[in-house]
Amino acid sequence: MKTSINRRGFIRNAGLAGMAAMVPSHILSSSFAPLYTAQIDPENEFALLKLEKILPEYDFPFIDAYSTENFQLKFTLYNLYNNFVKLAGSFNISKQAANDPNFHVESIRSSSTDIIFETDKYKKNFKGSYFFTGDIITENNMLATPRSWLCKTKIARTLKDPPYMNTGHVWRGRVRDGKISYESGPYYQTKSIGERELTWKWGIINLVQKMAEESVNEIHFSAMDEMDMVYDHQYARFRKSKTIDCGQRKIDFKVFDVLGDGIIPTVYWVDKLNRVVFLVTGTEAFVLA
Amino acid sequence: MRPNILIIFTDQQNIDSIAAYKHHFSHEAYGCHWVKTPNLDRMVENGYSFLESHSCNPVSSPARSCTFTGRYSTETGLTYNNIGIDKDVPNMGQWFEKYSDYDRVYCGKWHAGGKWNYPDIDGNRKIPGFDTIPVSVWGTGDFNDFQVSGAIRAYIQNHDYDKPFLAIAGLMNPHDICYWTQGLWGKRLVPDQDLFMLGDQLPPLPPNYQFNFEDPEPRSQRNNRTKMEWKNYIYDYLRMIEKLDMDLGRMLEAVDGRRDETLVVLTADHGEGAGRHRREQKWHPFEQSVKVPLVYYMPGKVRKNVFDTENIVSQIHLMPTLCEYAGIPTPPGCLAGSLKSLIETGETEQELDTAIVEFKHIARVVRYQDFKYVKYYEYSGEQDQPFVRRSDGKAEKFTPCVGKERYKESGRMLLFNIREDPWETIDLSKDPDYATKIDELEDVLINRFEMVVQPGYHYDRN
After folding, report:
1. Which residues on chain B are in Cβ contact (under 8 Å) with A30?
2. What are the backbone dihedrals phi and psi of residue B42, each rounded to the nearest 5 degrees, phi first?
3. Do residues B237 and B174 make contact, with C-beta atoms less than 8 angstroms apart?
4. CB B244 within 8 A of CB B141
5. Contacts of B117 (CB under 8 A, 6+ apart)
6. CB contact under 8 A, B146 and A226
7. Which of B313, B303, B292, B309 is nearest to B343 (CA)?
8. Buried (b) or exposed (e) across A124-156, using 16+ Cβ within 10 A?
9. What are the distances in angstroms from CA A120 to CA A115, A168, B379?
10. B420: which residues sit within 8 A by CB, 6+ positions away?
11. DSSP H helical segments within B400-455, as ranges?
């Protein structure tokens, strides 16, 4: 099995064994000592407990300058449960804000290493992933309220390969007159945007960066999940500033909680450049690559 | 005209976790008062809800084997997790493959066959009878469920109209709550602190929080958890319900966009302790563990906005119901009948007054009319896993039951009047006034459902 990471940071042809081979041994070790526990302020740093197997050897991505108007972030995605930390995919988001802000999102979540057989209908040794790509044009506001978007998902071997078994899906959306319209082939639907101003699940990365930059303490919103379903009554709230050891260096962070309907409590860690470095939620962690 | 069929199968969902059930589950401690589920609500308001719906065996693999075969777990052989279904007991996919031209697809958590939990392991026995869409390597709803719902949505939207489909979406959530202590926000250093400053957003503790009857299965007891931990636990659990609501909505919208008819069924493998009787997860015979949502939805055919509190049903009713919709025979051995007539007309000739719940080798539960009787047995095999010999953590060799000695009565029992005491706080089993009632329920168990107490069955998984 050959495992590689392409120039966009996407994991390709990585089955279970391949994925495991990419993870440093200290992450996979169940006996790894929790180095950070003794240093963590129990009131405020509990989110770091979830990263304790990642942080000690984390290669912090230092850069000289960063703009919340034009950025590109590449995250490594980990799945966390029962004391396991598993490399599980990648997530990239970029923003260009020349006129109307324009976001591009690419997400790969590792899928099965193999698929069913027994008849010729099945493909053996399917090594695919769940691919999501989205281009989202937004309002020029802190929430990056979506105006229109084009999204694609599929389960396939690689991003270039055709979708497996009717799983390809392309949809366009638009916000107009307080409604979301959603179009996919012959399907056309409209739905309410909710009671509050709208953002979107990954637009919250942009939001907390802007909150850090402009020293905003709390903001309430509705959010779109996967650019289709809407959940109301969510909010982002500044928790505190904190300096932590990160890859043997001390790094200053602003910490934000994101809470509300339809969302497992999530903690964002934003560095002094106003760049999201860690995103920790229920059973997932996004770590800036 | 045979409809398409979509089964949305959730994991560990409480029956009271749907906001539209507030008027039925009126106590403020029920989950429905603390959760927003617009998509589940839409399905409920346009469908037929069974509010006396039971898991046949409140743990994942056995419950799934019952749901997808229409047989009790002592018949399927899945009396515990990670055992395969007996090869002579056809699952839904195999049965539909044999008798119909339905396209059959499964996506997500299966956990009802062979050594695998998920369809990602090499081998030639994965999910017999189904095409399988490959997701679910890592085993959490956070990671998987939007993939499952996205893939099933695409499958439904792209499926031709020339023949019907049977699609099953195996969602993981709200099972992620099982990882709360170590993987979610239970891994905290200050147990009594409201770490996310949620304040009055935190739900109240259930009224039976302090009640904990002695039970030989201690796995789900959490006696040392603080009130704040329980409140946070329940809060996070309900957010998982809201996440699965979005997944359900995604698939429901795809169904609603088709020009043909699709019967949609929402149900779950088992419930969740949610702090009741100081319990989490499943593994116990109380209502929060054994009750599961069951909603049928097909606008124009299935009656809408029905909240059935009278008819007592369980997972073994699903298979015969779907067979009738597909116009194919019910597999031999299925004890339950179809619910089609009931959900379409409100009429049925069946006497739906009993549910049997198997509980490993430890207990059997009889829900008969208003009462629930729990009969305990002594451990008679290996602790915890009497039916499976394990090597390297994987089910390797199955040891068939050898008869009644594995079901030696312990003399322990519980009796509740569920209609009058829905939180199960008063055990009536020691009250002499209810001796006749216990005899009546014992008779139901022994004489009407002998197969669940006397397997005597040789399972063959080759």
Report:
1. none
2. -65, -40
3. yes
4. yes
5. B82, B109, B110, B111, B139
6. yes
7. B303
8. eebbbbbbbbbebbbbeebbbbbbebebebbbb
9. 12, 21, 46
10. B370
11. 435-443
* A113 to B179: CB separation less than 8 angstroms, yes or no: no
Write the residue in B126, B153, B239 that is nearest to A263 by C-beta: B239
B250 touches chain A (CB under 8 A): yes
| A46, A126, A167 member nearest B155 (Cβ) | A167
For residue B13, which phi and psi values (nearest 5 degrees)? -95, 125
Please, which residues 115-154 of chain B have a Cβ atom closer than 8 Å to chain A? Answer: 118-122, 124, 126-128, 130-143, 146-147, 150-151, 153-154
CB contact under 8 A, B140 and A154: no
3-class SS at B428?
coil
Of the ranges B301-305, B398-402, B446-450, the best mean pLDDT one: B301-305
Chain B residues inside the 8 Å CB shell of A79: 138, 140, 142-143
| Per-residue tens of pLDDT for chain A, all 289 residues | 232 322 222 223 333 233 333 333 333 322 222 333 334 454 445 667 777 778 777 888 999 999 999 999 999 998 887 677 778 889 999 999 877 899 999 998 875 444 433 334 444 456 678 899 999 999 999 999 999 999 999 988 788 888 888 899 999 999 988 899 999 988 898 988 888 999 999 999 999 999 999 999 999 999 999 999 999 899 999 998 888 877 667 889 999 999 999 999 999 999 999 999 999 988 889 999 9
Tell the residue number behind the tokens 């499943």, with chain if given.
B282
Q: For residue A161, how many other CB atoms are within 10 A of its CB?
A: 12
ipTM: 0.89
* B243 phi, psi to nearest 5 deg: -65, -45
Check: CB of residue B201 under 8 Å from CB of residue B208: no
Radius of gyration of chain B (CA): 21
**pLDDT reported for residue A270:** 96
pLDDT (tens digit per residue) in B300-324: 999 999 999 999 999 999 999 999 9
Residue of A nearest to B129 (CA): A118
Vertex A184: Cα angle to A189 and A10 (nearest 5):
125
Nearest in space to B107 (alpha carbons), one of B270, B319, B251? B251
Residues of B in contact with A237 (CB under 8 A): 197
Percent of chain A with pLDDT over 90: 49
**What residues of B are in contact with residue A283 (Cβ under 8 Å)?**
140-143, 176, 179, 183-184
Q: Does B343 touch chain A (CB under 8 A)?
A: no
User: Are A262 and B157 a contacting pair at CB < 8 A?
Assistant: no
Q: Which residues pair with B265 in a beta bridge?
A: B7, B296
pLDDT digits (tens, 9 = 90+) for B204-238: 999 999 887 877 777 788 888 889 999 999 999 99
Question: In one letter, which amino acid is A65?
Answer: A
- Contact of A108 with A11, CB cutoff 8 Å: yes
Most B CBs within 10 Å: which of A52, A80, A259, as the mutation test of the B interface? A80
- Supply the DSSP string of B289-347, one letter for each residue: HHB--EEEE-TTTS-SSEEE-S--EEGGGHHHHHHHHHT-PPPTT--S---HHHHHHS-
